[in-house]
């Protein structure tokens, strides 16, 4: 695991790469954002956090500048860009190397098709980070970091990848149920995508008593798909899927715990919210949820609230709607009809 490529130098990839570089792991960083590359190569990569900040000198390359081979590729592009990024990145992977997806969604399914199941290692991340400006990222809060093989087995490389990530997250750990985490995050992060419809912070949106029924129906809808797929969804950082499955009161109490997790964070809004409100760009919500819809269909399950969520986000992305309570009300209407 000596030669490390981090593909995607944004909030997640850049933050991880800067910490690995500081620990003398010498990662090679790749991105397509020319202004960001220029700033990193000129001034270093600045990482701010509530605990202080540091600037790490490291080389950042455009995809066409990469050469050589690498033992591990940490993929940290948005789900939308997984395929295009990997088609290029896989050229640089050793035959017995692996791709580790530092992404939200069920990206490991597509990655396995592109590089082979045996070269795909699952990862679940829940720390918060923001791209602030070229060359400058915010590491907003720590969160769970878990590595697991997609077939549930433990291999020597599983632990080696965890060790590699420890300079970034000292509590990084392995699991034999990575799909449990990925589906857990899929259900949980539907609330973060729904927050993108609103003009609220994550704390206010997730903790909004007027929206709790909507939140619970949305999360339950996705947990049911995980169960149909034979996956035991797992909790993390305040989220307990079983509370949602138990009864309404338990689910409402858990929503409060989930909101509290974000209160001390310097990241006030979800990445999807920021894509719309700050950058005026597309989110990766459709790319994350579309594979889930296909799986739901396979099991004969309806997911009307999640489908409505994607439709509303696409309206936002296309400039046909504005973030705010009336958009949230449209989602609520669908949820209450379900
Ligand atoms: N930010 C967060 O707090 C969290 C994010 N995640 C997940 O992590 C993943 C990465 O998100 P995040 O870091 O926030 O996103 P960012 O947009 O901050 O970073 C992604 C970077 O990848 C670049 N990129 C796009 N296409 C390519 C390509 N083909 N090759 C190389 N680089 C490319 C982007 O450039 P450009 O902008 O020009 O497209 C951007 O700089 C997502 O799946 C997200 O859902 C998970 C947990 C928390
Ligand atoms: C909010 C966060 C960081 C999860 O904790 C996230 O995954 C996102 O913004 O997409």
Automatic annotation (TrEMBL):
The record's catalysed reaction(s) read: (R)-pantoate + NADP(+) = 2-dehydropantoate + NADPH + H(+)
Q: Name the top EC class.
A: oxidoreductase
Keyword set, alphabetical order: Pantothenate biosynthesis
Biological process, per Gene Ontology: pantothenate biosynthetic process
Q: What Gene Ontology terms describe what this protein does at the molecular function level?
A: 2-dehydropantoate 2-reductase activity
Report the pathway entry. Cofactor biosynthesis; (R)-pantothenate biosynthesis; (R)-pantoate from 3-methyl-2-oxobutanoate: step 2/2
Domain (Ketopantoate reductase C-terminal): give its ranges: 177-316
Q: Which residues form the Ketopantoate reductase N-terminal domain?
A: 4-151
Q: Which GO terms describe its cellular component?
A: cytoplasm
Question: Can you say what this protein is called?
Answer: 2-dehydropantoate 2-reductase
Species:
Borborobacter arsenicus
